[in-house]
Amino acid sequence: MASLVHFWCLIGFFAMADAAIYYRPSQWAMAHATFYGDESARETLGGACGYGNLFNNGYGTDTAALSTTLFNDGYACGQCYQIKCVQSTRCYGGFTTVTATNICPPNWSEDSNNGGWCNPPRVHFDMSKPAFMRIAQWKVGIVPVMYRRVPCIRSGGLQFSFQGNGYWLLVYVMNVGGGGDIAQMWVKGSQTDWISMSHNWGASYQAFATLGGQSLSFRVTSYTTKQTITAYNVAPANWRVGLTYKANVNFR
């Protein structure tokens, strides 16, 4: 048992050896914010990033949908933002921190300054109602805000949710710390070399390969910091689609 514990400690050490990059907050910038749904935030469940039940998967109600200018074809999924209301008598003091979990699509039937709030090139946050209510009186509907990217503080390691079939593995990556985002992924079966995965949509990556009956490891590169970490033996050889597997490494 002692040798087994030592083996896993060594794996954790080498996996984190190239994890020396810490994500730092960005500068503040101007945008606008609205909200969608009600106080329960149930309308925010699911979303374009593919995180499923945000309550069960650790994101809670502190979430926002991003305008396409920010969403960046899904590469912004998982990023964390501090948002504070400004220039309005309906503002509360302080700020709130949200995770990007959805897209706010354009509405070209409305003027960009009157209902088409998420039309490009506008920078806009459509927040959950509980998150919006932390920065402004909700009846105002829309407020100017200042925002900045901040490190995502996550408890535990990366989480990999599996979908697909015996010939196609689709993986949603959740609970990403540091920059919060993913640029590239690889998967390695216990009987294969590293296989490059392609970006599907949101926070999902796919590999067209036969990986059943093999334990799986993943290598992940952050979109923002370009840092790469490796999570060894995340899923056992009898892994199944529909399940989520947790690693013991994360970005910082």
UniProtKB/TrEMBL annotation:
GO terms for cellular component: extracellular region; membrane. Keywords: Cell wall, Cell wall biogenesis/degradation, Membrane, Secreted, Signal. Residues 167-247 form the Expansin-like CBD domain. Residues 1-19 form the signal peptide. The keyword Oxidoreductase does not apply. One of its GO terms (biological process) is plant-type cell wall organization. Pfam families: DPBB_1, Expansin_C. InterPro entries: Expan_Lol_pI, Expansin, Expansin/allergen_DPBB_dom, Expansin_CBD, Expansin_CBD_sf, RlpA-like_DPBB, RlpA-like_sf. Residues 46-157 form the Expansin-like EG45 domain. It is a peripheral membrane protein. This is Expansin. It comes from Parasponia andersonii (Sponia andersonii).
